[in-house]
Specification:
2 helices; about 150 residues; single chain; 3-stranded antiparallel beta sheet
Length: about 150
Amino acid sequence: MILTRRSGDLRLHAGEVSFPGGRMEPGESPVAAALRESREEIGLDPEGVEIMGSLDPVSTRTSASLILPLVGRIPALPPLEPNPDEVAAILDLSLLALTEDGVHHSELWPWEGHLRTIHFFEVPGDTIWGATARLLHQLLLVGLGLN
């Protein structure tokens, strides 16, 4: 699974762990946008990606964005090159490793008068939380057939 650590110079979510992605351009499909952004951010050749499907959309609190997550598969990890304007590091994580004891936990946080479940994944050198953790949690549920 490919994730990135966002550049510390970005206006929003600087230094956070996220999936490659970004905004759609006018007239662009979600698939075309995802493949373009992955090429721009990490140098992933879109020809080698098989789109498997999508997850449920996720909204972010801080940037008020709606994320339309797509799941793709590549046969093997190709050489990747981070775009230094957007990406500080490329992370290659095992989805299975996220199921190990002590990696995932959740907390209830107050939000708009309700309690909201916030997911956290402790991975070497990082804590993944926020929208990325919600997407990872959803991916694990779907991947393990629990959804």
